[in-house]
Write a structure and sequence with these properties.
Length: 138
């Protein structure tokens, strides 16, 4: 219990801090949740409370470790005010060219490792001899 309280108070990368939870409870409006478990919120603009904000504030509470690449394209557009329609709305239709979202796997065992990479499995291909090292003009 004490460990969870300590983590909630001082860390932001593995959930919400206590102040974020307080803000969500007081003024946040839950908009929806994506397939990864990330939860999206908005806070309508109130010029009396804070005239510096010209539009509503939007934010995400990540499921697990805070990794921005886990936000799917529809939610990314909504988060960055590219569109005002969140993907959970009935009027949202993904484009026919959109592929299913995949988070960035860099640094994980599922990361892309091209042929010839030191971390790729198998044998490194032999040099083809078409490379000539650069030397400065003398």
């Amino acid at each position: 219990m004490l460990k969870r309280l300590f983590l909630d108070w001082f860390t932001w990368w593995n959930g919400t801090t206590l102040m974020t939870r307080l803000t969500l409870w007081r003024r946040g409006e839950k908009v929806g949740e994506d397939e990864f478990g990330n939860v999206y919120y908005r806070m309508p603009n109130d010029p009396k409370r804070n005239p510096a904000f010209k539009r509503e504030r939007r934010w995400v509470v990540y499921s697990g470790y805070a990794e921005a690449s886990t936000i799917p394209p529809g939610w990314w557009g909504w988060m960055h005010h590219t569109t005002d329609t969140p993907p959970v709305a009935e009027t949202y239709v993904p484009r026919d060219w959109q592929k299913p979202h995949r988070p960035n796997m860099t640094g994980t065992p599922r990361a892309y490792r091209p042929k010839g990479s030191i971390q790729a499995e198998g044998q490194r291909p032999a040099a083809t001899g078409d490379y000539k090292a650069w030397t400065p003009a003398e």
